[in-house]
Specification:
The complex is a heterodimer of chains A (284) and B (452).
Chain A lengths: L1 H6 L1 H40 L4 H7 L2 H12 L3 H8 L1 H28 L8 H16 L2 H12 L4 H24 L4 H8 L4 H40 L2 H11 L2 H30 L4
Helix pairs in contact in A: 4-13, 5-13, 6-7, 6-9, 6-11, 7-9, 8-9, 8-11, 9-11, 10-11, 11-12, 11-13, 12-13
Chain B lengths: L1 H40 L5 H4 L2 H12 E9 L6 E5 L14 E4 L4 E5 L5 E4 L3 E5 L9 E4 L5 E3 L13 E3 L3 E7 L2 E6 L2 E9 L17 H8 L11 H10 L6 H32 L8 H16 L2 H12 L3 H25 L3 H9 L4 H8 L1 H31 L2 H11 L3 H30 L6
Antiparallel strand pairs in B: 1-2, 1-12, 3-4, 4-5, 5-6, 6-7, 7-8, 9-10, 10-11, 11-12
Helix pairs in contact in B: 3-14, 4-5, 6-9, 6-12, 7-9, 8-9, 8-12, 9-12, 10-11, 12-13, 12-14, 13-14
The chains are: A mainly alpha (284), B alpha+beta (452).
Chain lengths: 284, 452
């Protein structure tokens, strides 16, 4: 307290200015680094791209315009296409839903072992954390492609890939939620002699369940996108339909599928935000 | 009185509890039914049946082992053809130590590490000394030029399970590491050994056989291997131009993918932040601009990265731009929406404090809002950088190029699994590096343990 007065305003001002100068230097360096990265990256991109940037820019609207023109020309038939691909869409959503559910179950199991406040053994915690890191690090597509190759074309490889990735990604979020849970209820139960499972059941779960459900809903949204993409490489569903019509260049059907996808993603976004708002209690 | 009230409260709580339990049981039951139905729908019980065992074992074997092909034509038994992985250009000039040619009886012996031998004679192939196999099998050609196992004609079902004789081919596989195929025209032996051979330097390189540390020490050695160029350049060139592992292309593709992710995220955050300011009600009074920007964010985000990449693929062709813009467009929407919400949630007092000093609007935002949202902005941008690294691999495989496309290509050829594994490991390492770096950076810049 007193030392501030002893230092004197001049020293404080000097220190402040030195700090401001340091910050300025740091900001300057980071801005320079970002600019360098941007310019050099874009140069490399320009050199290695199949077509040049300017030509591409001028052609940017060609493809969407063509597609829309074709969709417009097909008239009322276009609406039939929307319904034609509805079953595919449902199968994709089902794939995502099932893998999210399954992945969440695995994530739950893993996260219990990856939380420091539940498991006292440091090795088990580290081991399950590293497991989740590895599960999370592979892009779904890499796992799905390998399994597709080994198992033939079906929905199963995609499901496995999404489950693996979801288990890792959700497990990390879950274990962090558990670790951030208030310790007092756990200690309270422990003081009256509750077993490990009783502590988890009555002190941890009530605190973390709303968070868990909210994270799982967010993941569901991501997984719908992922299962579409996996369909594109041969796992069925609307992704496969999209890749087929793109190959055949059926512009009207491409637009119909894209329309379905966009509507699905936007409505899922609103729906999950609504549910999450209800669960966590702050409507944003 | 108090007693009665208490009883009422207890009853009410009890009722609510029972209702709660009932809802829980019903939801649990619905989920269980759905799970079971879906498990049947996705055919999980038949997982083992769908699993292509041959492909899987070949895949695994190829990942940790390499093989040499030894081929003999029945027409010209003296000419033994030796190739690494059966490649067109990878022909051994000198005999390896495990191959012995016997000039006296015109035989050639292929030795295996477990003591087993396949011996080529001009008119037959013998199998000797394999552990746990006592019978010496002999393979010959009959008058019609078809292969058969000596002593087992018409008794093919008596053959051991690791041997298969059909009309045109006899296939012998005592273990995973030895394989013999006898055809009417030729005999082919595959000899497997552990490890990634020629990973550092390829077949024709002057440095072949050198390991990593040998190469490093050679780099700083004064005596030139090739008098024309320095050792350092030679080592780097020979490593990059490895024809079997294609380090040159693969590493460049990895850089491309990382560039896609980094540049895409950079552009998204640089465009998204100003737009987010314009879309926040406490910054922009005009509701029409806000409404327009909100819908723009929804559109950018709602059109999936997959669709963006397809559109850009048509415009820019396969390459970096497609990936960069697909990522930048989608994430401008996401970051813009997130940041505009963060701006709206900022504490009003900071801005009012600045306003009370008579500062203009720009300064109010600069010192009243930005310090509050900067930590969120940085941590969200870094978080999206992490997920975009994975996304860039995926977009790459959809046609934008980079490591994703190479991965797909290597997998589709069906026999370069070591390259598939190499690229998968490379992706894993890159993703983990980016994750760790962004976590460190976040801690450094924000100074608190991140909770995302």
């Amino acid at each position: 307290m007193y030392s501030d007065n002893i230092l004197g305003f001049e020293t404080i001002e000097k220190n402040l200015k030195a700090m401001a100068f340091k910050r300025l230097i740091y900001s300057f360096i980071s801005i320079l680094a970002i600019l360098f990265l941007l310019s050099s990256g874009l140069t490399i991109a320009e050199e290695n791209n199949a077509g040049s940037f300017q030509r591409g820019l001028s052609k940017f609207f060609d493809y969407p315009v063509d597609l829309f023109k074709e969709a417009f020309e097909s008239g009322w038939r276009w609406y039939a296409y929307v319904f034609k691909y509805l079953p595919d869409l449902i199968s994709t959503i089902n794939m995502a839903f099932f893998s999210t559910l399954f992945g969440a179950i695995f994530a739950l199991l893993l996260s219990l072992f990856a939380s420091k406040n539940l498991i006292k053994n440091q090795y088990i915690v580290t081991l399950s954390r590293r497991t989740m890191d590895i599960l999370r690090s592979f892009p779904e597509l890499v796992i799905a492609m390998i399994f597709l190759y080994l198992m033939g074309k079906s929905e199963l490889p995609a499901v496995i890939a999404i489950v693996i990735h979801t288990a890792g990604a959700l497990g990390k979020l879950f274990s962090e939620a558990i670790e951030n849970a208030d310790n007092k209820p756990i200690e309270g139960l422990q003081s009256c002699g509750a077993s490990w499972w009783q502590r988890v059941r009555f002190a941890v779960i009530p605190q973390v369940v709303p968070l868990f459900i909210s994270y799982t809903l967010l993941r569901l949204e991501i997984n719908v996108r992922a299962s579409t993409i996996l369909g594109f490489v041969g796992a069925g569903g609307i992704g496969e339909a999209l890749s087929a019509v793109i190959q055949f260049r059926y512009g009207d059907e491409i637009i119909a599928i894209m329309f379905l996808l966009v509507i699905t993603i936007i409505s899922l976004d609103y729906f999950s935000r609504f549910l999450r708002g209800r669960l966590i209690g702050d409507n944003k | 009185m108090e007693q009665v009230l208490n009883q009422n409260v207890i009853d009410a709580v009890d009722l609510k509890h029972k209702k709660h339990i009932r809802i829980l049981i019903i939801t649990g039951f619905v989920f269980l039914v759905y799970l079971i139905g879906s498990i049947l729908h996705f055919d999980l019980p038949n997982l083992a049946k769908k699993w292509n065992k041959d492909r899987a074992s070949m895949f695994m074997l190829d990942i940790y082992a390499h093989k040499d092909h030894i081929k003999m034509n029945w027409k010209d038994p003296q000419k033994i053809d030796l190739r690494f992985e059966g490649g067109h250009r990878h022909v051994y000039k000198d005999d390896p130590t495990w191959l012995i040619r016997n000039k006296n009886n015109q035989s050639t012996i292929v030795n295996f590490d477990n003591g087993g031998q396949f011996v080529f004679f001009p008119n037959r192939v013998e199998m000797r000394n394999f552990p746990n196999i006592n019978e010496p099998f002999i393979f010959k050609l009959n008058k019609n030029g078809k292969p058969y196992v000596d002593g087992y004609v018409g008794k093919e079902s008596m053959l051991p399970s690791w041997m298969r004789a059909t009309e045109n081919k006899v296939e012998v596989r005592p273990s995973l590491y030895e394989r013999l195929q006898v055809y009417g025209s030729k005999v082919e032996v595959h000899r497997y050994e552990l490890g990634w051979k020629y990973f550092w330097f390829d077949f024709d390189s002057p440095l072949v056989g050198k390991g990593f540390f040998d190469a490093i020490s050679l780099m700083f050695n004064e005596d030139r291997v090739d008098p024309k160029i320095s050792n350092f350049n030679l080592v780097v060139n020979e490593f990059l131009e490895n024809e079997i592992w294609h380090h040159n292309t693969v590493l460049f593709a990895m850089v491309e993918t990382l560039l896609m992710a980094i540049l895409g995220t950079l552009i998204a955050s640089m465009v998204g932040l100003p737009l987010a300011f314009l879309a926040a009600y406490n910054v922009t009074p005009l509701s029409s601009i806000r409404f327009f920007l909100r819908r723009l964010f929804d559109m950018l985000r709602g059109i999936d990265m997959l669709i963006w990449s397809l559109i850009f693929l048509r415009a820019f062709g396969p390459g970096l731009f497609t990936g960069i813009f697909a990522i930048a467009f989608t994430d401008t929407g996401t970051l813009g929406k997130l940041m505009s919400e963060a701006i709206e949630n900022t504490d009003k007092k900071d801005k009012e404090g600045i306003q009370s000093t008579g500062a203009n609007k720009v300064l109010q935002h600069r010192f009243g809002i930005i310090p509050q949202i900067l930590p969120i902005f940085i941590s969200q941008s870094l978080y999206y950088l992490e997920s975009n690294t994975r996304a860039a691999v995926i977009i790459g495989a959809m046609g934008a190029g980079g490591i994703g496309l190479h991965f797909l290509g290597a997998l589709m050829t069906g026999n370069d699994f070591e390259n598939v594994a190499y690229m998968a490991i490379l992706v894993l390492v890159a993703v983990m590096c980016i994750d760790t770096m962004s976590a460190k950076l976040r801690r450094l810049l924000i100074g608190i343990e991140d909770k995302k």
